[in-house]
Amino acid sequence: MKKAIIGKKVGMTQIFDEAGKVVPVTVIEAGPCVVVQKKTVEKEGYAAVQLGFEDVADKKLSKPENGHFEKAGVEKKKYLKEFRLDNSDELNVGDLIKADAFAEGDHIDVTGISKGHGYQGAIKRFGAQRTPTSHGGGPVHRHAGSMGSTSTPSRIFKGHIGAGHMGVEQVTVQNLDVVKVDPELNMIVVRGAIPGPKGGIVYLKNTVKTIVEKKAGAGISVNPQKASARVNPQKASARTK
Description:
Blueprint: E1 4-16, E2 22-30, E3 33-39, E4 48-55, H1 63-72, E5 77-83, E6 96-97, E7 107-113, E8 118-120, H2 122-126, E9 164-166, E10 170-182, E11 187-191, E12 201-206, H3 236-239
Antiparallel strand pairs: 1-2, 1-12, 2-11, 3-4, 3-6, 4-5, 7-10, 7-12, 8-9, 10-11
């Protein structure tokens, strides 16, 4: 990957673009992150850097964790994450990565831990359908229903939907575009929603998707058989031509 940073979800809001349209956005406090450890191909077999985010008191870390930071000679950080960056060889321990590593218009993937919903049934957890609510449906309208046939296979297949713990899973939302970057406030604003609650830790990196820029006039066809090329003479826009 080309670039990455650790951040914290602040919340969602909306802004207006140049055309006056409302854009739902998520505000992220991104960085500053310090390089705590550098891994090289010669020693570890691959090139990567370990980034640290958010200061923490010494008493809240274990002895091995304190020793890890003291060896690097950097301030103690609460969150650590390793990234295999393309420019890992150019970075050194102690370097800072700030929000301006990303720019407006960049496409990124955001990874976080989804909100926890506790113990939920099959309807909310998997979107299952209710049973009919009339003609003697009984008190089973939100139950899971049939789990499979009887004598064959005489068991429930693994992965069948059912009640259980919902949420608190790692989720990645891909191909979000950066709307605004403010290095002074350590702020990155992205279009759309990202996983997790307010205050949740998220990891930003450039998207794995291949971005194809649309060419001008790509949606207009010259084929008269296509609807986009046919002109309705009944429309006022066609009569004025």
